[in-house]
Amino acid sequence: MHDLIDRRGFLAFIGGATAAAGLSAEARADAIEHYLAANLAAGGGGADAGKGTPPGGGGSRPPTVAELEAQIPTRNWRRGAGKLFVAETGNVARLPPMPAKPTLQDFIRLRFEGTRDHCLQSAHLARSKNADEDMVLACLIHDLSLNLMRTEHGFWGAQLFAPYVSEKITFAVRHHATLRFFPDEEAGYRYPELYRTMFGADYVVPEHQQQEYAWVRKHRWYGAARLVTVNDLYAFDPSAKVSLEEFEDVIGRHFRQPKEGLGFDGSAVAHMWRSAANPDSPL
User: Fold this and answer.
1) Which residues lie below 8 Å from residue 193, measured CB to CB, with a gap of 6+?
2) CB atoms < 10 A from the CB of 36, how many?
3) Would you call 89 exposed, middle or buried from its count of C-beta atoms within 10 A (0-12, 13-18, 19+)?
4) Inter-residue contact 152 to 177 (CB < 8 Å)
5) What's the Cα-to-Cα distance from 144 to each of 64, 72, 113, 277, rounded to whole Å?
6) Contact 39, 84 (CB under 8 A)
7) Core-most of 148, 179, 251, 265, by most CB within 10 Å?
């Protein structure tokens, strides 16, 4: 994500300065995230999108962890819910039918719209830097699990894709989310300012993630997971249009598409794909 956003565009998105003044710290953090996602999906904002003042606008301070937690009981939804299950604005939309034997491409086009453009841009950026093809695929799929679950999305994504990709790709997807909390100047990765608003200015990374980072930092595939974070951070650009067709060859060579279709191959994660295919099922 961009560390900076266009304040005027953000204010217009939420209904003006008066509406902004009435937002709680938690609501403001959510609105910023929704603005970035909606602006990307709509291609809005023109050349100035993603540029301007820090999140929150006008130099306002990021909220504290306590302020964010105080807002939890004011909502009828939880922030960890996947994008398929919570509308960015208004009501959820009726989804198009899936093919009888859906492929990864079908899911990206028809179910993973919430992070599709971001993941396409991330993969395009990695390819433009001459990243290996398996890492291009890792960037293409790294945030698709956010459509199912935001919380611990790296681990959800790794589980979702493990039967169909290499162990290295699985590793990179699993650990990229935690690595985002830890800067690596040598790799060109800074802690994103947006996280200070989303998680709180005084947020402390939980012990289990600190331990995970320490272990991953020593692993031979640390660079793979770090590469995903580097291309993840700078991949939001509303003016960039990337087609899924650009990666058909990479998917064909590095994704083991089951002949029965994702969700119907009897794998240990088939139910996850069926849940994504039919998120309106009550049971």
Assistant:
1) 3, 4, 54, 55
2) 23
3) exposed
4) yes
5) 29, 25, 9, 13
6) no
7) 179
